[in-house]
Task: structure prediction
Amino acid sequence: MTQYVHPLSAAIREIARIFGEMGFAVADGPELEDAWHNFDALNIPKDHPARDMQDTFWLPLREGESQARVMRTHTSPVQVRWMETHEPPIRIVVPGKAYRNEATDMTHEAQFYQVEGLVVDETTSLAHLKGTLARFFGEFFGGAVEVRLRPSFFAFTEPSVEVDMRLSGEDAPAKLKGKWIEVMGAGMVHPKVLNAAGIDPATYQGFAFGGGIERLAMLKWGIDDVRLFHAGDLRLPTQFPAYEG
Amino acid sequence: MKVSREWLQDFFAEPLPDAAALADALTFGVAEIESIEEADDDSIIDVKVLPDRACYMLCHRGIAKELSVLLGLPLADDPLSHALPELLPAAPGLAVAVDDPARCPSYAAALLEGVSVGPSPAWLAARLARLGQRSINNVVDATNYVMLSLGTPLHAFDADKLSASGGTIGIRVRAARDGETVTALGGAEYALTSEMTVIADAHADAALAIAGIKGGTRAEVTEATTRIVLEAASFDPARTRRTSQALKLRTDASTRFEHGIADMLPRYGLDAVVALIAKIAGGELAGFAHADAPQPAPFVLGVSAQEANRRLGTALDDAALAALLGRLGFAYEKADDPLARVIALARSLEGAAYAEDSAMRFDAPRAFSCSSFTNYVYVHGAGLALPSISIDQYAATTPIEADGLAPGDLVFENTGEGRIRTETVQYLPGTPVPSGVDHVGMYLGEGMVIHASRNPGHVTIEPMASSPMFQRIVAYRRPLASPVPRFIVTAPIERLDLRTSTDLIEELGRVFGYANIAEQMLPAAPAAPLINPRFAYAEKLRAALGEAGFIETYTYSLRETGATALANALASDKSHLREDLASGLAASLPLNEGNLPLLGLDAVRLFEIGNVFPSEAEELRLGIAVRFPAGKKRAQQTREALEQARAVVSAALGTEAAPAAAGEETLEWNLSMIIPELAVPEAYVRGARIAPGALYKPFSPYPFVLRDIAAWTPGGTSADALETMIRETAGDLLVRLELFDQFSKDGRTSFAFHLVFQSQERTLSDQDMDPLMDRLYAAMREAGFETR
Result:
């Protein structure tokens, strides 16, 4: 009997393997999250315009509840949860589901998987972020890859950057070869985030990154519609028989 | 923020490069570009200004300043480099008052008389039009123009529509009253609450505008207007945001105020708009009035090359860092020996007053608390910010032994009287400091300490051993880890985003260029990563179920029903969190069953691993769903498949795991309950991969058509030969071909195939299928086969 692989699971598996080889543990956390972990601890205070960057599904405030819960808008709250319970050095990747309250189309989905990465120790710099992501993209897509950073803003990192990659290896999918493609947001963990999670920002630093896993899978396997991933439709996974090589 | 290249050019003496080059400089230096449009010999660049930089970049001047930094082109005349406008003379007939400075930290107004309201000059109307702004009249356009130029929202009122008392009109900024209404420009009426702020006609006590958001019709400027009051103010960002959200009213002004602008920035805007109106609408300035909260001293911060390099992974030396600060246009001083400067500064402040609750930026160097004193000397002497509370200064500095005490070290004391804190407040909040801290001073060497304290009530230098404030010393700590040179930077007035050394390092990094930072690999990890048991067992289950012929799917977490409803759902069918996996999986069965021939599967066997939300909990679950084609064996096949699934799951988990729920065609396990009971695996299984180079092919949205064909062939004919013939004859519409029967009799072999046809472009009809099948039959007969 032919065995099939769902591309989302295949992508997560590759992410866990590649980062695992670089010493990253796979971490997880709740999808139904409190606003403190999803926003405040990540330096996105109440009534701050930075909250507009993420359209949020809120849950109704329950009796006696001082802060509302949200469907996590990113996997970044797991950074905070991990730091609250682990001492540096820290290296984690967090592949997990996130939610955005936005209309769906071929490239937007109200639920999607995101991979978050976090490194915290005494010496990790933006240069390490570049090197780490270059190695990841090189292994994930196969072959030579360049990584380019552009200035950006995320409340929980500083400096904050957008991450572009350009594949040039022989195995690179023809559609991607030689083109700069935006794939992630990243940056150096904001000292306020370390502080909120109980890690001394004067001693420790590190980087964090996050990007959509469906997007990585779409780029790698040429899937043209993000909605296919969560539709429960076997016409997607049956295109990907398990590879025995 | 849309900006015009022509308008940007006003800020430069030298010609700017073309729009593409400007966009490139901005993209790699500061902000993403949404679009570039060509319009009437101008280029309009839409710059995506992010929240942190909105305070200075939501205007042409801000973007011109960035271009100046990034391209190395000097600004010909930076309006913000001028001295703060003094707003003189005072207007005799105008008074302004602000009830609560927290709501409105600065309010300035100008009174102009003899103004001729009319159409704007063509250049002004054209500039606004190119940015998508409608021209209204010369006065209103001038306010919009200056906002787009300097980032300060402005508003014009018809002064004659304000009530006068004793020859004076008055503006009062006050809380709105619950239920108070304002008819905004454009005619919409808004009901306000006391959480909101209004600009009111002081004498008529009537609201003229919703503060920071939109003006009202009551004092609207019209063609008949001759006296105007121009308003330039700053409003509390969070309150502006809440008001704008509550009223669902977002304007150019509210966007700027909710991000925050420097309190004194509006003065530059007022100065500019008064000059512009005088030019294009005539009239005479009667004067100004203003009401401002006390303003803090300019913000001072600092950085060292060591700190910048540590964070960026660069190798900048002091000269390179100085050059970058110069490019950024920041005023800075270099402290070659920061510690010596700290000590000299501290000594120079001897005698300054003590005030327990003084705030550094407002009261220093006139008055200090103990911690504002230590903070001030480190900020201004070394560009090193300390937390504002003494116990937090304790937590943020490095411990040293008493015998290592050196000048510049901080001495922490628990006086035993008054407010002794035993937990940090803002720095690593809640960290216990059991010894308790309520006072801090700085050691000067030779047994002397300098500190600001209630005893004797000013900054004093005295022997530590005999100081009544240092009889219960709890710790000695060092703020500066290494005495390397530091840069002390004064943040420009408009740069509310520059508050910490990290903010400065980001500025240095982006101007140095992220492209110039060399990639580095992380060092080898100190230990093997922890195994995540949930991921490990999920992967094990995926592998086992996959091998057993179950196919993984993902279904939606948001469904029509469930125990937990969203407060703001996208759609009624996605209004709740799913309570289980089975419902979503079961819902996908009919579609997949209908596609079985297309997929070449005998039955639907699905599984999903994902989180569900029964009642108030969140659980990781595994769900199974199967569907066999209708027939008398269906019930038995279904039962057997579910039994098989149970066996596979139990084997993968290494335990007899009872399902949490079972349906006719579904099974579901609560992995959140099961996995904690299991041993953590030592490694992840090597799960299934996708072949290198595999690519997805879009599937047709049109229905497929199923046909069978069977033929007798001479002995020795291979199935392959028949398949080749069928494929060649049937062409691209044949998407699946499956041999389902083969037997030999009397020296002949019979082959029977399922054929699945589908078009990417249309629904196949009999008109498509009949000739196609005829061709297939004909081809077979021609080859000497007997079709059945």
Notes: Chain A touches chain B through 106 residues (CB under 8 Å). The helical segments of chain A are 7-21, 35-38, 77-85, 126-141, 191-196, 213-221. The mean pLDDT of chain A is 93. The beta strands of chain A are 25-26, 32-34, 69-71, 90-99, 111-121, 145-154, 157-167, 180-189, 205-212, 242-243.
